[in-house]
Amino acid sequence: MTPAPERPLKIALVIEDANMRGGQERVIAELAGHLAARHDVHLFCYTVADIPLDGIHVHRMRDVALPLGLRALWFAVASARKIRLRDFDVVLSQGGNTLTHNFALVHTCHRDRRRVRLQVERQWHLKSPLRRFGETCRDGIFAHLEARAVRRCRGRVIAVSEDLKSYLMREYGLASPEIHVAPSGVDHDLFHPGQRDAHRARLRTELGLTDDDFVALFMGGLWFEKGVPQIIEGLSRAQSRAHLVVAGSGDSERFSAMANDCGVRDRVHFVGRVSEPEAWYGMADCLVHVPVVEPFGLVMLEAAACGLPLIATRVSIALDLIEDDLTGRFVDRDPASIATALDHLAASPDLRRAMAAEIHGRSLPFTWDRQAEEIERIFVAALTPRPPEEEPV
Q: What share of the chain is helix, strand, coil (3-state, %, to 5)?
């Protein structure tokens, strides 16, 4: 339990949207509820949904009909005009989403993600020159805001993973003591191994799959950045007759053609964006997640909580969850490595069952309460006056 400060803190949490649907929106929703029990909490946002607001003062800013990137940039300016730093003990930004802050909670790595997007664009030529130029400018502004935030908040920077802390040290020259780590959590009441019994048979029947079919799951967006092309090619190189279910938003037509070219179109199933990810974790035999960079990797933690072995690159939360042949397999981001891992897990249902139990156990320490308590502790420690050093005798 976090020691109580001498007085309640007045805290401003700043985010475009607060809700319980995951990502940084879920982090702030959970944090607001936790802090409101002992502090004066003010939430500055465009929208708020799905969360109890007892004890939370909500300051809604007028949402604007702008594309996603411009909407975020406008929020950074509009929130700064509305918030006066002197009125609060804590003004917590999300890695630069406002110009007024004294603490930064960093969820992403804009410079690395910018590099990955440029690499993807060079390889796949996905956008028109005009759109590429616009997105390059947008990414540059986000990276500038991130740099501004972490440098202004030295000593009060919070990263959601050790991987992200290393990025901040490398890119912005912060020392290790200037960055705290508070890993994100997972709702274990929703994400748990019981989802297998509840949903496996139904969803497999809908997809035309049997209980004996080995099914790998990819969950999320940014399919090029997260390695879906490499996963599809890896599936084609595997000796087993594994299936791949791709859940999330992406260019399913283009990726269907890719699967067809690889000769595995009948074993790749695109199900679109899903409203109950826990059901799809329950349907699958493993999760495959192979990004180049990943600030945290909430899908991996959710899958682990549901007892899914992981096949993943060495990024972020995977470093805490995966131990080769015990909870899953680390892979390189190339089709041959992915194919070997798929074959290894497909060959042994007994191994997968043992992995499921072990990885579920490793997920249990990661809770939203734990993250909120750690962030509150950081606030209290940073704002508690230090006793004067004694004069030497």
A: 45, 15, 40
